[in-house]
Amino acid sequence: MRHRVCLTVNGKAEEFDVEPRLLLCHLLRAYVGLTGTNIGCDTSQCGSCTVLMDGKAVKSCTVLAVQADGSEVTTIEGLAGADGLHSVQQSFWDNHGLQCGFCTPGMIMTAVEILDRNPDASDADVRHGLEGNICRCTGYENIVKSIVAAGARQS
Amino acid sequence: MFPSQFDYHRAASVAEAVELLSSLPDAKLVAGGHSLIPAMKLRAAQPSALVDIGRIPGLSDVSRDGDSLVIGALATHAAVADSAAVRGGCPMLAETAAAIGDIQVRNRGTIGGSLAHADPGADYPAAMLALGAEVTAVGAGGERTIAASDFFVDILTTALADNEVITSVRVPCAAGGAYLKHRHPASSYAVVGVAACVGMDGGNVGSCAIGINGVTGKAVLADAAAAALCGGPADADRIAAAAARVGDAFDEPLGDLYASGEFRAHLAGVYTKRALALAAERAG
C-alpha cells in the first residue's frame, strides 16, 4: 500500500508517492536529491540527519515520511538566503566550526533551534543543547564557539 | 536501515484508533515514534500495521486541574518540559521531561508513547511512580484509569490491553521533588534514574516516595527506603540510611555491556541519596 505525501521542502511544495516504511531522511536524499542531510548512526543518536520540521529540530532517520505529510521541512540546503549564508553557517565558516564536515549539517540545524529558543545561549547552554549531535572528529570546541558567536551576532 | 513492510492508517479520533487496533491483527500505535521506529528499524518490532494517532486533536493539551496536572498523551517531552503549568505545579515532572534524550528527541517523543513502551531506561516511569500518577486509557469497553503502580507490569509490558489507547495522564502537583539520572553517554537513556518526592511536616519528613528506573525490567517504587526517611529530619545521615535500603526494591537487576546489574544497583543508592537531598531542600 503506497501513500501520497505532500511536503514543503525548503519553501517548495512537492508531492510524493511512498511506501509507509520510507524514512524522511531517505525521502529527502533519494526523492528530493538533497544529500546535505547526512545519515550517520541511523539509530537516532548522532544527529547528522537533523532537519527542521515545522520549525523544530528532528532526527529525520526517526520520522516516517508519512508522518511528515503536510509539514514544512527545512534542510541545510534551505538555510542560506538570497543575501548569502545563514548567520549560523557564516559563524561556522568564521570560527572553523568543522573538521571532516560530516556532522556539520546536523550541528547547524540543531544550532538554529538552540538559538531560536535562546539567542543568548552560553557555552554551557550550547553544550547541553548539542547532546543529540555527535562529532566523530571531536571538534566540539570550535562548534560551540561558532554557535555562541552566531547567537551574539543575532541578538 | 528501514523497517519491514507494514500498512499505515491515520486515525482521526480515539474511537477510530481503538476500532483499527481491534480489527487489524498485530497493529501498533504510533505517535512520535521515538521508541517504536528505532525498534522497527532493528526489526525488533515488525507490526503488520501502524495506526498513527499523532494528529488526533485535543490530545496534546497540558493543563492544571485543581491540585493535579492533566497531560494529554500526545504532549511532547519538550512541551511538558517548557509548560508553565508543569514548571509551576510539579517542577520534578518538567525536570524529568527535560532529561529525556536530546532536543530532537524531545520535539517528537510523547508522554503517552514513552509510558506505553515502558522501556526500562525510560525516564518518565520513575517520576510517574513517585508522584502517584494515573494513566487514563480508552478501549473497546470505554475509558478506565490505571494507577502508575499498576501500570508497569514487566519489561516493555504495561497493563494496557492490545486495543487500548492512552489519552491522558493525571499527575498530582508536588513541590518537593527531584529527578536525577545517570545518562548513557550515547543513547541518553537512563542507566539509572531516580525520582524522589519529599513532603515536610514541620521539621520532619511527613511523606516520601522514590521511583527508580534502569535497574530492573520495569520501574519500581523503593518503598522501604522511602519509609525509612519518614518521621524524622531529612539530614544527611538519615538520607544515607534511607538510600541504603533501595536494594530491597530490586528482584533481579539487569546488566548490559555498559553497566552490570550490580553497578546499576549501586548507582541507584548513590542517585537516591542525591535526589532525596535535593527533593528535601526543595520541599523546604
Can you describe this structure?
- The complex is a heterodimer of chains A (155) and B (284).
- Chain A has 155 residues and is an alpha+beta fold.
- Chain A folds into two domains: 75 residues, Beta-grasp domain (Ubiquitin-like (UB roll), Roll), CATH 3.10.20.30; 68 residues, DNA polymerase, domain 1.
- Chain A has five helices and five strands.
- In chain A, strands 2-1-5-3-4 form a five-stranded mixed beta sheet, sandwiched between helices.
- Chain A is globular, with a radius of gyration of 15 Å.
- The model of chain A has no long low-confidence stretch (mean pLDDT 97).
- With 284 residues, chain B is of the alpha+beta class.
- Chain B folds into three domains: 46 residues, 2-Layer Sandwich (Uridine Diphospho-n-acetylenolpyruvylglucosamine Reductase, domain 2); 111 residues, Uridine Diphospho-n-acetylenolpyruvylglucosamine Reductase, domain 3 (2-Layer Sandwich), CATH 3.30.465; 107 residues, CO dehydrogenase flavoprotein, C-terminal domain (Enolase-like, domain 1, 2-Layer Sandwich).
- Chain B is 35% helix and 27% strand.
- Chain B is built from twelve helices and 14 strands.
- In chain B, strands 4-5-10-6-7 form a five-stranded antiparallel beta sheet. A four-stranded antiparallel beta sheet of chain B has the order 11-12-13-14, sandwiched between helices. Chain B has a three-stranded parallel beta sheet with strand order 1-3-2, covered by helices on one side.
- Chain B is globular.
- Classes of the chains: A alpha+beta (155), B alpha+beta (284).
- At the A-B interface, strand 4 and helix 3 of A face strand 1, helix 2 and helix 6 of B.
